[in-house]
Design brief:
The chain has 113 residues and is mostly beta strands. Helix content is 0%, strand content 53%. Strand 5 and strand 6 form a beta hairpin.
C-alpha cells in the first residue's frame, strides 16, 4: 500500500517555471515505475511523463523539452520540473504509482497569459 502526496503547484505567468513534488509514503516497491498525469477542466486526464525503474523516461509530445521528470535517490519523492509554462498547461497535476496503480490527490497549476 502507498500514499502519494503532491505539492508545488501554484499560479505563474506564461514562460515561468514550477517544480512539482510527489512524496511517497509506504511500500518503496511502489516507486519502481511512476508517472505524472494532468487534467484540465472539462477534459480527460492525460499522460504527462513517466520514469521507469531503470531510469528511462517518457514524455508526451507537448511536454518534451519543457518538462523533466526525476526521482530522489531514495526513490521516496518524484519530481516534475516544468519550464516555459503555457496557459494550456493549466490543469490539476497528479502523480501515479504505476507499480501499485495508486494516485495522489493532485496539485493545481495555473498559468496566466
Amino acid at each position: 500500500q502507498v500514499l502519494l502526496v503532491e505539492s508545488g503547484g501554484g499560479s505563474v505567468q506564461a514562460g515561468g517555471s514550477l517544480r512539482l513534488s510527489c512524496a511517497v509514503f509506504g511500500s518503496i516497491g511502489c516507486t519502481a515505475d511512476m508517472s505524472w498525469y494532468r487534467q484540465a477542466p472539462g477534459k480527460e486526464r492525460e499522460f504527462v511523463s513517466r520514469i521507469n525503474s531503470d531510469g528511462s523516461t517518457t514524455y508526451a509530445d507537448s511536454m518534451k523539452g519543457r518538462f523533466t521528470i526525476s526521482q530522489a535517490n531514495a526513490k521516496n519523492t518524484l519530481f516534475l520540473q516544468m519550464n516555459s509554462l503555457k496557459p494550456e498547461d493549466t490543469a490539476m497535476y497528479y502523480c501515479k504509482s504505476d507499480s501499485c496503480n495508486s494516485w495522489g490527490q493532485g496539485t493545481q497549476v495555473t498559468v496566466s497569459s
